[in-house]
Each structure stands twice: as C-alpha cells, then as structure tokens.
Fold this sequence. Notes:
Helix content is 66%, strand content 0%. The protein has 192 residues and is mostly helical. The longest helix is centred in the first third of the chain and has 25 residues. The termini are far apart.
Amino acid sequence: RQGLDLALLSTADATQAARLATHGMNSFPRWIEDLVHHHAPCVEAVFGACVRVDYAAPRQHDVLRLLPYAPELVREACAPVLEELIQAGDPPDPDVLEQVLEALLSLPTRRAVLARLAPERCAGDTSDLARFALWWAVWFAAEPDAAVENLAAQIGTHSDRAGDRVLAVCEQIWSWIEDRQAGFGLPDHAQV
C-alpha cells in the first residue's frame, strides 16, 4: 500500500485487489476503505458475489463474518446486496443471519428495513429460538413496546416453552450489549 495510489488502479487491478481483500483472516486489509472510495463498483461486485455465496453456504469466503467489523464505507458498499437477500428470506444458518443483522444494524440508514421485517419474522416459525431471538432483539431496538407486547402474547400462546423463549431473547440482547454491537441499544425507557 505504501507508495501506491489506489485511485490510479485500472478496473482490472482494482477488481483483483478487491478479490485479494476477501482473503483476510481477522479483518479486511487497511487499504480496503481507500479502494472502496476510488473503485466502489469493483469492490461492490466482488464483495457482493462473496456475500451471496456466504449467505447460502457459510464460510465459503468469510466476507460476512468480517463485514460487521469493517469500515462503514465497506459495509455500505455491501448493504444493497444484504438488504436484497434478507428481504427474500433468512439464510439457512443462524450465525449468518446474525452477521447480516449486525452489519445492517450498524448502518443507521439501513435499520428501517430490519425494523419492517422483524415483526413478520418473529411471527413466523418460532420453533427456532436462536433465529426468533435475533429478530426479536432487532424489533426491540426499533419498536420496544410492540416487541414486548408480542413476546408477552407468544409466551401466553406457547407457555410450554415460555422460559426458553425469554432466556433466548435475554441471551441475545446481552450478547449484543456485551459485544457493544454497533447499532443495537436499549431504548431509553428500558435502561436501568
């Protein structure tokens, strides 16, 4: 990176650089933000393709795993693909769902999509408690009163698993608070 002006890269070289950036072990390279700044379409195309593969079959490229911790410009470049995929349906793997939700929650301009989807996803198949807890936590961050009312109704309807449901929700909320998940926060009137 030192001495290299990323703005001067050809489209082919920028695309190759974006491909190389997807192979980071614990993070994307420091220069990825500059690459997005100068060659957004190249990064969007490469990262978008990786995100689509990771969404269907986790840990193929591992871009989704790194995305919640990437610079905002990188997350914004991937947000249209993430929104498209999440609106079409949840990924098969709950870990991938959490990665997508974390990436989108960290972008204030993208939270509205999640707030719109959360109630319907919580009302769907509630047998998968981890998936339910993820969506409920998103809903709680966006519309706490409606989310709590829904949880109370579900506990009444599914009293046999009420404790499991509440525990799953509390664990998810605690996990995001403990990890200081960007974009997730307790509503003011829910804080003690």
